Amino acid sequence: MALLLEWPTLVLTIFSAVFIGFYFYFTRNFNFWKNLGVPYVKPSPFVGNLKECVLLKETIGNHLKNLYDEHSDKPYVGIFSFDKPSLLVRDPKLLKNILVKDSKFFADHIMSVDVKSDPVFGNSLFVLKGQRWREVRVNMTPIFTSGRMKNMFYLVVLGCKELIELLDKETAKGSPVQVKETMTRYTTDVIASCAFGIQSNTLKNPYSEFRDHLREVFDFTVRKGLTNLLAFFAPSLKSILRLKLLDNSTADYIRKLIWSTVEYREKTGLIRKDILHWINELRTNGKKTVQDATVSAENPRIDSKFQLDDDEFVAQAFQILAGGFETSGTTMSFALYELALHPDIQHRLREEITRVMAKHQGELTYEGMQEMSYLDMVVSETLRKYPVLPFLDRMCGSDYTLPSTSGNGTVLLPKGTGVFIPVFALHYDPQYYPDPDKFDPERFTEENKQNRPNYTYLPFGEGPRICIGMRFGLMQVKVGLSHILSRFEVAPCKDTPLTVVYDRKSFILSMDGEIPLSFKRIPI
């Protein structure tokens, strides 16, 4: 009997000891910023300053914005990513140093992935670090020159024709269009064609195997949300918990799809100069990749000895695929949502699209798209208000000297410290964007852009780590919007949300739920 009574006490003692051990481990760094003399946000045990995100009470973009707003008098503020000290940077001049001027000190992302267990994601350009990242980045850059984008323009237009056919069918039924799903199906078809040369037929069949596997990549479940949060803010903890960003079935499907396409082309001698073709050239012989490219600052000369191994090849192809459909589809959805709520802006944009297309024999051409200045302003304002990735992250690669927050003296930022740039917060700072909740494309006239401080608009990042697919993403968004608005009037319906509620499980900025809109065919 005495032994039985001792068991609860023993269990409680063990539990208490383990809890105390974890408590001291997760709070061991909590004097870090105080010791450096840096203002900081008081952390909570185990989660640091991320409690609201862990409990799904707030999106990471909004949470960082709240911290940004609370320290409006400081160029930066110390925070804690679970147990790790990190720096939240506010000052545009300091952002310039981190992203461009001193980028060699901040070349890597914080995210770290176990390559052995997750080779498809772990070898992607976004995750690669150090010298290998530099080599892959330099050799991948010429794939996305304006010349190559122009050569793929017709493939995007073909995808738009199928999108218009689908919208015609939906409007004939008299029912609203579920914009988020529809635009993502369009961008999925486009990136599948431009990247892999395959017909995914997602617009015709939303439940295709291809669409199902890609949907899993951005399946915003509670588990996936926690995994993504840990990947950016506590990658070592993610590794300990053996959480994977890409499940095995999707990784196997993507790997099989890529290799079967390559094998078919090699067997038949088919040459299709899409993204997969150019990445495969890097795998087989780097010199071929630039045999027809002009050497310039935009398109640097590539080391002819450079090659990708098989896992890196699959990883780069996957990243282009994954990065090209959800982000662009989300941007198109938010643009259509704002245009539906602002018919005056929509009308002005449609007039520009119609005028430019008439100038080019009624067709949307690559040159014509470059002439649409108001379209560029509308897309820019959409990305200002809804930056797909609401923050940027960098790892301090070696000790770095910061100006102190008081303006007197300096602070030594230790190697290994994470740095976060709150893009969403910058885009909503009234100091740079008066009345920031208002959708106003006029913010992006040339005059207004010149009058605004640099590094306060960062939807694609900046510096050496700027989004490599920026040109392609903008192209498919602008082509899609041009085709839609030249043929349809878009308006709210009874189920259209009047306020935006973001998905708190998502690490990208995404509406929680659908965006139903009414589409009305414009008589020709």
Concise summary:
The protein is an alpha+beta fold.
Q: What features would you highlight for this structure?
A:
three-stranded antiparallel beta sheet; alpha+beta; Cytochrome p450; 524 residues; four-stranded mixed beta sheet; 22 helices
What would you say this structure looks like, in words?
This protein has 524 residues and is of the alpha+beta class. It has one domain: Cytochrome p450, CATH 1.10.630.10. Helices cover 52% and strands 8% of the residues. The protein contains 22 helices and 9 strands. It has helices at residues 2-26, 32-36, 51-54, 60-70, 92-101, 119-122, 130-140, 146-173, 179-196, 209-217, 222-233, 235-240, 248-268, 275-284, 286-289, 310-341, 343-359, 366-371, 373-385, 423-427, 446-451, 470-485, and strands spanning 76-81, 84-89, 177-178, 392-395, 400-403, 410-413, 418-421, 488-492, 516-521. Strands 1-2-7-4 form a 4-stranded mixed β-sheet. The longest helix has 32 residues, at 310-341. Mean pLDDT is 87; it is low at 287-302. Its cofactor is heme. InterPro entries: Cyt_P450 (IPR001128), Cyt_P450_CS (IPR017972), Cyt_P450_E_grp-I (IPR002401), Cyt_P450_sf (IPR036396), Insect_CytP450_Detox (IPR050476). Keywords: Endoplasmic reticulum, Heme, Iron, Membrane, Metal-binding, Microsome, Monooxygenase, Oxidoreductase, Transmembrane, Transmembrane helix.
